[in-house]
Amino acid sequence: MICVGAATFAAAAPTLRAGPPAVDGQPSPQPEDKLFMTAAIAQRDRWFGFAMTLPGLFALVLVVLFPILFTLWTSTSDFTLLKPSNDAFVGLSHYTQAFATPEFRHALSVTLAFVVAVVILEFLVGFAVALALDKVEHGKAVYYLILLFPLLMNPIVVGLIWKMFLHPTLGIVNYVLSLVGIPPVDWLGVPDNAFWTVVAVDIWHQVSFMIVLLLAGLASLPKEPYEAARLEGAGTIRCFFWITLPLMRPVIVVTLLIRLIFAVKTYDIIYIMTRGGPGQATELVSYYIYRRAFVGLDVSQASAMAVILLLAVLALTAWLHRYMRSLAQ
Amino acid sequence: MKKFLLASSMLIASAFGAEAQTINILMESVPDTRYVQEMLPEFKEKTGIDVQLEVVNYAEMHTKLVPQLVAPEGSYDVVIVDFYWVGEFTKAGWLQPLDERIKADNFPVDNYIPSIMELTGRVDGTTLMLPFYNYAMGLTYRKDLLEDLKHQEAFKAKYGRELKVPTEWPEYLDQVKYFSEDAGIEGFKGVVNQGQRPDPISMEWSNYLFANGGRYYDPETWQPTLATPEGIAALTQYRDNIQKYGPIGAANFSFDDAFNVAAQGKAYSYLTFNMFRPVYDDPASSQVVGKMEIAPVPGGGLNGSWGWAIPKSSPDPDAAWEFIKFIESPEIAKKRALLGGAATQKQIYEDPELIEKYSYYPQLGELLAYAQNFPVFTYTPAFVDVLGRELSLAVTDGKDPKEALEQVDKEFAELLRKDGKLQ
To answer: So what's the ipTM on this one?
Structure first.
């Protein structure tokens, strides 16, 4: 933004200098001339601005729009890894086939449960920690550093570490539990346990994201409303519900949206920890689509499923955004 | 002087020519790749050809290979092919036939173990690969416990048979039960399984299927035959071994999770890839050094292997063949085996020098001779995915074994029809 503004200013400067000066008895420009000149400058600025954004736009089209359009095109053709060409148009048959596949429908429902669980739990934990940290006076940087560690780790590493920790016979978690007399827990070998274990590992990995964003939001809140509320005799809980929560709403919306989008795309920890099992307990849709493309070799079918997922995420995002905005009003 | 100049320039040109000849191979980061690497200076000395190995994890291999195989000229001169991919690669026509080269050089293809040559060698009568290394499965067990008189007596008293290396499947199942319930060793189990979907569970359960006399399909018609009494018995036994006689968590164990349990001395047996056998004797990763041994799975275990191939997109197929011919020559195959390589040629398992070094080589030779193959067709990986899902549902989610296997048969048949194998 700064660069474009500066460039625009620089481009406009010679134009201003070249304007008709009131010398040599020449008449000064009339108001309508000034208006015309301003419009011309604005027009030139617009074109210049557009020209300056072209490389960025081109890059965006190339790296964002082209893959999406290619995926759309592939989803309506018969592209497989054995016959990598898009020449046979099959209409929407891959879309109807996707909805007719029980595994895909199951993967969608598991993903929905997973996303709801991780987003809600991470938000609750994240907000609680952010509120606590907001009051910390000393050593904030140390807390930040510790909290950021999981977020900085690659999900593959997170999956491997937790898989090792949670090994039912040789892992440290069951060993520690045994010290206090708790029998070993089968963290990943039972469908229900496996689902909640994966949710817990995801929370461990991603909750810092919520904390950091919410903490930044809390730090930027104005102090005056709190001072006024205190004078009126409002307590901490009342301040939270009547001041903090309404003021934080925009930050909360953005945080939830970003986390929701990322949660839908969860793939790595499933690949490392459970491969979608046991049974179909952790069959998330991103992992299912990957297998459809690279194990089933059916790229077109996988593309149709990816488009369905994209539309679902878009719809969910739009709904959540609208809902939160309506709450704000 | 002119002659001298001409000779010098030719010498320089040939030197540059030789230096420029380099072949590229994509390989998996496994011990056998390391043994190949150690042979490269000898190959360079013999032929003057440089070999560049690009070593990656298994998960990356397929994704890296396919774009190169599809291209008119790829960057790999030689590729290695897992038996999983044989159907796909041959259907797509990505590999060059090797028969003429084999004939021209009189290469001893009969040295290979027939079942391995069938798996990663010949496809429909054409030789498209030469076997590289095997990963057939065997029964690894605690020989110290089998030799223990106390256990021998207790086992005989309870089950009415000798406690010895099992040669019959029911005998092995009894041993599993004994070491889980009757041996009186705290925290010890009769078996550890690798129940994670899709590959670990599918590969391991195949042994149970073969041991029960079952098979994946009718070899004449390709009609799936899993939902049969043999298949159902195999799945019921597998489920019981995981749920009743195995350690908790086995339903989601991958190869390394299960191996670690066995290597830490927490289980009597583990059906696994034979290449794990020497690792039991490595004090850095095992608590049971000298206590584990390998035997053929009663009924014949599952076969597995990789093969060398020259892709049609190979930039230098002649140099590629020179390399394959060298690395698979009996002399170099023996050198690789001496380093610890999982050989695919028969004579290696009868070599006195190797038997002296690896006492279990005769058992390995027997194991390979009776190993049975997994279905190889274009959609083998997709089939493994289906099989793994249904087996895991039967083991962990209460799905009836018969119902699970009927579902596998149904989806297996669809994949076979898609491939044109089943009418």
So the answer is: 0.80
